[in-house]
């Protein structure tokens, strides 16, 4: 059974086809939302490795945490996921989730809870702040549709500041960037591009993945135009003595390699 709050009202579908109908429109629009999204899967019981692997194959960056509730917050602070998936939800987890979501670091965090197929479990999760609740017996198509729906409005990495003075500072609120202490001015598209790379240092992205970032998943960007965008960005970075940070990995794509002395807790594994 599928549960979610729509306009503050609990909606559920008894039959699988009903749930699919509720999400069909959103599913069509969410084809690209998994690509590049950070998803944290927390399980206090059976590890969710299979779910993590499926989401990774769809282009998401996934961390699967099998442990205690107290282990979740430190990882959120270091890694800044846009979506937290809680498996094996139980009613007694509600106070913990409510407290977690009250913290400033979780302001933009979406939460999907998976658990028993009954309204008591669903309401306990939704009342605690979960964005949606699914019975853990739903099919993968329903699960993926719900994840896509939550991610559609969840490009919250765009609000994440990158700062390691005096080498790099990217402030999304003021739309300002400093490299090696010098401010550079970029177009909105190039700002988004560099910001995304800075949140994923040392990770190589294909032209297709970069095209998706440049387009914000909304407009079509040809892959053969990516090289031109990289060239433009590198020129701006060179003015601040940081052009060599943006590397071309021949045959694979591009990556941002920051100076060795810079250490980021947000690096993806």
From TrEMBL:
For whether the record's keyword set contains Metal-binding, the answer is no
The alphabetized UniProt keywords are:
DNA-binding
One matching Pfam family is: Trans_reg_C
Does the record carry DNA-binding as a key word? yes
Domain of life (superkingdom): Bacteria
Task: Give the molecular function GO annotations.
Answer: DNA binding
| Ranges in a coiled coil | none
Record domain OmpR/PhoB-type: where: 158-258
| BP GO annotations | phosphorelay signal transduction system; regulation of DNA-templated transcription
- The entry's DNA-binding region: 158-258
Query: Sorted alphabetically, which SMART domains does this protein's record hold?
Result: Trans_reg_C (SM00862)
Q: What is the protein name stated in its UniProt record?
A: Phosphate regulon transcriptional regulatory protein PhoB
Q: Which organism is it from?
A: Acidithiobacillus thiooxidans ATCC 19377
At the highest ranks, the source species' classification is: Bacteria, Pseudomonadati, Pseudomonadota, Acidithiobacillia, Acidithiobacillales
